[in-house]
Fold this sequence. Notes:
Blueprint: E1 3-8, H1 11-22, E2 30-34, H2 47-57, E3 63-67, H3 70-82, H4 85-88, E4 91-94, H5 98-110, H6 115-123, H7 127-132, E5 143-144, E6 153-158, H8 167-177, E7 183-188, E8 191-193, H9 198-202, E9 211-217, H10 221-233
Parallel strand pairs: 1-2, 1-3, 3-4
Antiparallel strand pairs: 5-8, 6-9, 7-8, 7-9
Amino acid sequence: MIGIVVVSHSAILASGLQALAAQLxxxxxxxxxxxxxxxxxxxxxxxxxxxxxxxxxxxxxxxLVLMDLGSALLSAETALELLPPELSARVRLSPAPxxxxxxAAVVAAGSGLSLDEVAAEALGALGPKQxxxxxxxxxxxxxxxxxxxxxxxxxxxxxxxxxxxxxxxxARLVAALKPFAAEMxxxxxxxxxxxxxxxxxxxxxxxxxxxxxxxxxxEDANAALACFKQLAEERxxx
Length: 238
């Protein structure tokens, strides 16, 4: 499983992010390399600490590293130089936003995605916020819902979660549907997203009272739809 490392100048900031990520219920390892061991001047980063965190996070699958400020990148780059070449080769430094990127990466890694896929999820994690701000000129990555082909089964639910499908219930949806082999599409009105991507799901901006439809086809499509329906009845665990 891909490991995640957060490099931050502040141990308090990183610990808060770790606590937030823990609410998503992902099994992906999240290690911190934050602050420095100096009680009077605790703000800073340490390349040796970054190196140790990467080593602890790696199980042979790879590690994604997210950083907060410029010198954190320098520490991460130095850490890569200190690591054995075979480990350094499977480490990716990400330019993703620290909070959104870390949450998306943790969910993606916990779903068993590859390093490239986890890195892509992290990098696209700013999209939901951009899409929700009316003044944003950033393009919305939601795909238009196509006409249905034969073989698709569907389940439509009304989202009753008080805060809609925000990051925590969205992460539970992604994790719940992960085991199914069926091809799946998630729709809200004319918008469509992959239910296997936390970033894509949150970009649907699903609010309380709105209708959400899961389309599935394949050998376990009925089971996937039943899981989706039960999750909705449980308010997506929120």
